[in-house]
Amino acid sequence: EVQLVESGGGLIQPGGSLRLSCAASGFTINSNHMSWVRQAPGKGLEWVSVIFSGGRTDYADSVKGRFTISRDNSKNTLYLQMNSLRAEDTAVYYCARTSIRYGDFDCWGQGTLVTVSS
Amino acid sequence: DIQLTQSPPFLSASIGDRVTITCRASQGISSFLAWYQQKPGKAPKLLIYAASTLQSGVPSRFSGSGSGTEFTLTISSLQPEDFATYYCQQLNSYPRTFGQGTKVEIK
Fold first, then answer.
1. Per-residue pLDDT tens over the stretch A64-103
2. What's CA B8's distance to the chain center, in Å?
3. Phi, psi of A88, rounded to the nearest 5 degrees
4. According to the model, what pLDDT value does residue A28 have?
5. Residue A44's pLDDT band (boundaries 50, 70, 90)?
C-alpha cells in the first residue's frame, strides 16, 4: 500500500527552526517527484516546495532562502528543513507524491501541524 | 505565476443535484489541471488530472472538462459523501498554484 506519514510538527517560537519528515512506503521516493504543500488554519492550499526525481529543487517565493527540501533515499524519507520561521508559516504541512507524467499530487500524507508563536 | 479563480466560492445543494464548479486560469495551461476534494481535518484527495482523466477509484459521477483557461468539475448526482471543499490546481508550471476552493454544503 502506498502511504506517506509526516512527523516533526509542533509549537515553535518566531525565528526558530524545525525539520519535518515524511516517511514513504509502498513506493520509492527517488523514482518520483515529491512536494510539500501547506494549509494555514481555515485557508486554502499553498504549494511550498518540490524535489524532482533527478534531485533538482524548487520553492515558493514565500519560503525561498528559509526552507530546504531534501530526501534520504536509504530511509525512503522526505524532509523539509524550516528556518527563520514566521507567524505566517503556521499551517498544516502535507507531503505529496507528485506524478512525473502530469505533475498531479496523487498521494498525500495526513499532515503535521506547525504553529509559530511566542 | 499563474492565478486560478474558482467560482462559486460557496455552493449549497441537495442530494441528487447536478453541481458544476468552474476554474479559470490567468493564462492558457492547455489541459494541465487537476481537481482535489478535501474533507474537514483530512488531506486532499486527487479526483481528476489532465483536466478530464478520472483518478483510479474515483466514482464516475465526477467528471472534468475544459482546456486553455476555463475548466469545470461536474458532479452528476450529489451524494452525502460529496459534501466537501474542492480545489483546482494548475500543473503547467512552477510555482504550482491552487484555486481558492469551493465549499459544497447541504441545502
1. 999 999 999 999 999 999 999 999 999 999 999 999 999 9
2. 11
3. -75, -5
4. 97
5. very high
Q: How far apart are CA B74 and CA B61, in angstroms?
A: 8
The partner residue sitting opposite A102, judged by closest CB among B91, B94, B100, is: B91
A49 contacts in chain B (CB < 8 Å): none
Which of B35, B48, B94, B97 is the best substitution to test chain A (most A C-beta atoms within 10 A)? B94
Closest chain A C-alpha to B63 CA, distance in angstroms = 16
Question: For A45, which of B44, B50, B55 is closest by C-beta distance?
Answer: B44
Answer whether B12's CB lies under 8 Å from B106's CB: yes
pLDDT computed for residue B106 by the predictor: 87
Give every CB contact of residue A54 below 8 A, 6+ residues apart in sequence. Answer: none
Burial class, B40, CB count within 10 angstroms (exposed 0-12 / middle 13-18 / buried 19+): exposed
